[in-house]
Predict the 3D structure of the following.
Amino acid sequence: MLPKVVEESTVRVFKFWFCETLQDGMHLQNELYYRLKQANPEYRTRLYQLACKLTQKGADVVLTVGEQNCSLWASIRSSRDLAHTVSRKMTLPANTRVLSDRVS
């Protein structure tokens, strides 16, 4: 199965709170996605290869392509562990840190 590729001008991007940080989100075909990566169009091939690998592992991902940039998006319902492997925005704190923050 191949990942979906969509013209960026056809989607609407919004901001939302997810995994303790402000994320970019989009809605496509009754599914909500968050941005994993954003890059210049010259890196579109690399993002597409990454999207193919993630799709093969079962992730629901979308690649949006525009004149100024291209983005890789993952469904919010997709495995967080899978998305975490490629996302710098989605850094999750260790359990010990979360517990220590609550105790303080």
About this structure: Strands lie at 4-7, 13-18, 21-28, 31-39, 61-65, 70-75. Residues 44-56 form the longest helix (13 residues). The CA atoms of residues 53 and 59 lie 9 Å apart.
